[in-house]
Amino acid sequence: MRHEGRKPDMNVTPLVDVVLVLLIIFMVVIPQLEAGASVTPPPAENIDAKSDVEYEPLTVSITGQGDIYYDRKQLSRDELLAELSRAHAAAPQRRLQIKGDREVDYAVVRDVFRDCQKLGFPGVGLAVGEKKKD
After folding, report:
1. Residue 73, strand partner residues
2. Closest CA to 63 of 21, 101, 24, 20
3. pLDDT tens across 51-109, in order?
């Protein structure tokens, strides 16, 4: 006589729960991996090719409302200059990249750019987006 036990019943609910949690984590984390605040730089033609540099440039982001971010941290202009001064003293060969949103007044970007040049960075660049082809 053969003993028939219960047939296994596969429960996929825990699997679905884990997959949904991972999906939510990735949806939150991936946008945060971008350096600085989320900005949409103005489009430009004839963009310089990215060069291989030994050091990743420091990134300063200026949002459409004029908020200034350095390393994903919102700072006032004076705090930014103090942080950049420390960073430049630690690694004088590092370059600086400024990402200004297309909605921000250019005078704000220009003033931050001028202040960063005065700190003595070997290169201060402006990040731009590619112009869409018609």
Report:
1. 70
2. 101
3. 555 667 888 888 888 889 987 888 898 999 999 999 889 888 888 888 888 888 888 88
CA atoms of 24 and 30, how far apart (whole Å): 10
- Compute the residue count for the chain: 134
* Three-class DSSP category at 67: coil
The long-range contacts involving 80-83, CB below 8 angstroms and separated by at least 24 positions, are: 80/112, 80/115, 81/115, 81/119
Cβ atoms of 84 and 116 within 8 Å: the answer is yes
The count of C-alpha atoms lying within 13 angstroms of the C-alpha of 13, restricted to the half-sphere facing its C-beta, is 2
And the tokens for 132? Answer: 């869409």
pTM (2 decimals)? 0.61
Domains in the chain, please, with CATH? Answer: 43-130 (3.30.420.270)
